[in-house]
Amino acid sequence: MKRRTLLGSAAALMASSALPAFAQEEKLKVGFIYVGPVGDGGWTYQHDLARQAIEKEYGDRIETTYIESVPEGADAERALTQLALAGNKLIFATSFGFMDAVINVAKKFPDVKFEHATGYKRAENVATYDARFYEGRAVLGTIAGRMTKSNKIGYIGSFPIPEVIQGINSAYIHAKKVNPDVEMKVVWAYTWFDPAKEADAAAALIAEGVDVFMQHTDSTAPLAKAQEAGAFGFGQASDMTNFAPKPRVASIIDNWSPYYIKRVGEALDGTWKSHGVWLGIGDGEVVIGDITEAVPPEVKEEALALRDKIASGEYHPFTGPLNKQDGSAWLAEGQTASDEELASLNFYVEGITAPMPK
Amino acid sequence: MMIDPLSVFILLLGAATPILFAALGELVVERAGVLNLGVEGMMITGALAGFAAAHASDSPALGFVAAAIAGMAVSMTFAALTQFLLSNQVATGLALTLFGLGLTALFGKPYEGVKAPAIMPGPLGLNWMIWLGMALVPLIWWFLTRTRPGLILRAVGENHDAAHALGYPVRLVRILAIGFGGALAGMGGAYISIATVLQWTEGMTAGAGWIALAIVVFAQWNPWGVLAGAWLFGGVTVLQLRLQAAGVAVPVQLLSMAPYLATIIVLVLISARQKFGRSGAGAAPASLGRPFHALK
């Protein structure tokens, strides 16, 4: 009963506030939900930079709101509903785990446009966008393979979802290319953001003899751990230059600004349509941060050459011959993985000995 | 795939220390009959204050002192609200957690991306805070069970009306206990920012305060049990990560669930024991969470 009156009054409020809006040019309200705090220095920080970029680009024509640290799950639905009720007409949901919540809320608000990062469920008013992180991972893997002395490289995974598995495979394939003796250790933290746990995961890898590792979690804690132990790491999602030149020897940066600016522009002039896009190094969405002087010049050159070949489309990081972890054939000589295959990737390539979590 | 048990144990001690501090503090608070659910808020406050002080003074030791003071300071708002204004302890504790998280997010902005001085190593390569945490266990046990002030504190927690009738200052005892709990929670939080992660990040305690609360129940309000609980919770985290790094297929979800399952089993055992009229040993302090007013 109470909830009904609440919703009713909210609707009445919206209706009354919508009326005078016809008189002047309507301000587009753009909402964001973030999975972590904007101060994480990584994933969410980058999304918030892009939010600031659209504010700068469109100034008075738009108004942005964000809700940070929204847990993936039922709470996300509440946060999205809240943004929709507050009159946001374009809502960015910036984590994989918001997927079902976005679809559910989008059904209830057909006139609100939703943009969901890294997901695969779409609707009339739900578009998805993703970055080809695996392209950047190929470059980092090359550096890792060259930099390791123990021949053990590590990877701190968040959740065993295709996006992360692509990264692990891509990093391993390219490390192995430059260093046939390399071994990959994987630790799943089962969190996107928990600095203490991420630090523990890094410590576990270091205790296993790993001296270069990558991370797919959002905080800078693993880099702090690497610094303590004299190991090398990479900036994740954001540049993390505070840890340059060592332990951060390079970084993989998510640059969402161009996409956000484009989509907000389309929403403003009414040409916004649902779609699913997957942009990479060539589109400027995945950026390799400055490779520091801790990396020998020839390795840096090699890494940059690989980056340029990927950017131009000349080389695909998943090019056969490649076998699956169990030894069965995956890609034949010269064959490249299709986007559909990558979007549902759930196995390691041959040579990774770590077990895939069930 | 052999894992060196000693290296696991060393990592375990580090992972257990923040929750050990916070849980020991909360244990004393609860033995005095006060339920403070604000542990998370006090920890994060300590994490920021400790980090800021360590950064400014270049001394981790000063950082921990500052963290203790900061934790105590925020716990005093809880004390004022619950002891003088008799507000609901559960709601006030939750508010303290939200308050701490918000306040530190605001004031922590200048410290993002800043580095802290390295913590001093102690005997056997373990830092002094790990040793201090373990030393606190017998000290608190001794205080609670072998000293007169400890007896008074427990009396206040078991039956505050009787303690009051005997002339003990119920409110003062509780305020002191809350302050002590706040100081330890603050130091536990600072361990995460100064020793584990070596930097400040918003929301960095990530639920450690709630784990500390679970450990107090798991420990049946006994300091030795708190040590066992902290090692169990810390050990499970470290062990599963270490097993993964060694390439062993581990049921992470099952392992992560184990300490909470153990806590539920302990709760069941406690109520079973009471139901069958054995003894009240191991049960929650009888006045836990109940407000006290002398003129009631």
Describe the fold and architecture.
The complex is a heterodimer of chains A (358) and B (296). The longest helix of chain A is centred in the N-terminal third of the chain and has 17 residues, at 2-18. Chain A is globular. The model of chain A is unreliable at 13-23 (pLDDT under 50). Chain A folds into two domains: 27-132 and 256-283, Rossmann fold; 133-252 and 288-343, Response regulator (Rossmann fold), CATH 3.40.50.2300. Helices cover 40% and strands 19% of the residues of chain A. With 358 residues, chain A is an alpha/beta fold. Chain A is built from eleven helices and 14 strands. In chain A, the strands form four sheets. Chain A has a six-stranded parallel beta sheet, with helices on both faces. Chain A has helices spanning 2-18, 43-58, 74-85, 99-108, 133-147, 162-178, 195-207, 221-229, 257-269, 297-311, 339-343, and strands at 28-33, 62-67, 90-93, 113-117, 126-131, 152-157, 183-188, 212-215, 233-237, 248-254, 276-279, 286-289, 322-323, 329-331. The N and C termini of chain A lie far apart (43 Å). In chain A, helix 6 (162-178) links the parallel strand 6 (152-157) and strand 7 (183-188). Chain B has 296 residues and is mainly alpha-helical. Chain B has a domain at 17-207. Chain B has helices at residues 5-31, 39-57, 60-84, 89-107, 128-146, 148-158, 160-165, 170-196, 208-218, 223-245, 252-275. In chain B, helix 1 (5-31) packs parallel to helix 5 (128-146), helix 2 packs across helix 8 (170-196) and helix 5 (128-146) crosses helix 6 (148-158). The longest helix of chain B has 27 residues, at 5-31. The N and C termini of chain B lie far apart (65 Å). The mean pLDDT of chain B is 87. The A-B interface holds A 36-37, 39-41, 69, 154, 185-191, 193-197, 199-201, 203-205, 207-208, 210, 219-221, 224-225, 227-228, 242, 353-355, 357 and B 7, 11, 14-15, 18, 105, 108-109, 112-115, 118, 192, 196-199, 201-208, 237-238, 241-242, 244-249, 252-253, 256. Chain B: The chain crosses the membrane at residues 32-54, 61-84, 90-108, 128-144, 175-198, 210-233, 245-270. Chain B: InterPro entries: ABC_transp_permease. Chain B: Its main location: membrane.
